[in-house]
């Protein structure tokens, strides 16, 4: 019986030490964080709106968190009322929430869908899609990207 207790004791001690070590590391990481929290509305005075790529006329964007060339980027994307966003793709999946307006979205081989304020949208990476901000605009989307931003237009063949 003593041999059994001793053979079980070593793995338990190792597990306990690992748990204590990871707990102290996570506590240290949390208390030393220099990152600040953020709260933005679409019309926040500190946001700088930039024109979208030329193939998205009538559109603009502002960075909320991260850098355009880095992964894990959050942004607002604004589309003027009655403006079409041409068929395009992205390397990154997109997670989106419509903040304002009414947006018709269509992904390749799918029926068009209408997103209203508060709608969640998910766009798979590299799947062609297009959109149109309807007349209840402007349409503002919150977009979270896993990979650095890119957008590639799809040239329609006649």
Automatic annotation (TrEMBL):
Keyword Signal: yes
Transferase listed as a keyword: no
Ranges for domain ChrR-like cupin: 41-145
A Pfam match: Cupin_7
Signal peptide: 1-26
Keyword set, alphabetical order: Signal
Protein name per UniProt: Cupin domain-containing protein
Naturally occurring in which organism (per UniProt): Allotamlana fucoidanivorans
């Amino acid at each position: 019986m003593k041999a059994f207790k001793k053979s079980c004791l070593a793995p338990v001690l190792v597990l306990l030490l690992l748990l204590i070590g990871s707990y102290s590391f996570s506590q240290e990481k949390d208390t030393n964080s220099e990152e600040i929290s953020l709260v933005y509305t679409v019309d926040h005075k500190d946001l700088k709106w930039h024109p979208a790529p030329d193939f998205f006329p009538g559109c603009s964007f502002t960075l909320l968190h991260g850098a355009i060339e880095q992964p894990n980027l959050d942004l607002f994307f604004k589309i003027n009322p009655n403006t079409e966003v041409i068929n395009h793709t992205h390397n990154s999946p997109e997670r989106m929430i419509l903040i304002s307006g009414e947006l018709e979205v269509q992904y390749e081989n799918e029926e068009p869908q209408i997103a209203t304020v508060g709608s969640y949208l998910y766009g798979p990476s590299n799947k062609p899609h297009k959109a149109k901000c309807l007349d209840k605009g402007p349409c503002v989307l919150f977009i979270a990207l896993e990979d650095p931003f890119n957008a590639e237009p799809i040239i329609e063949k006649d």
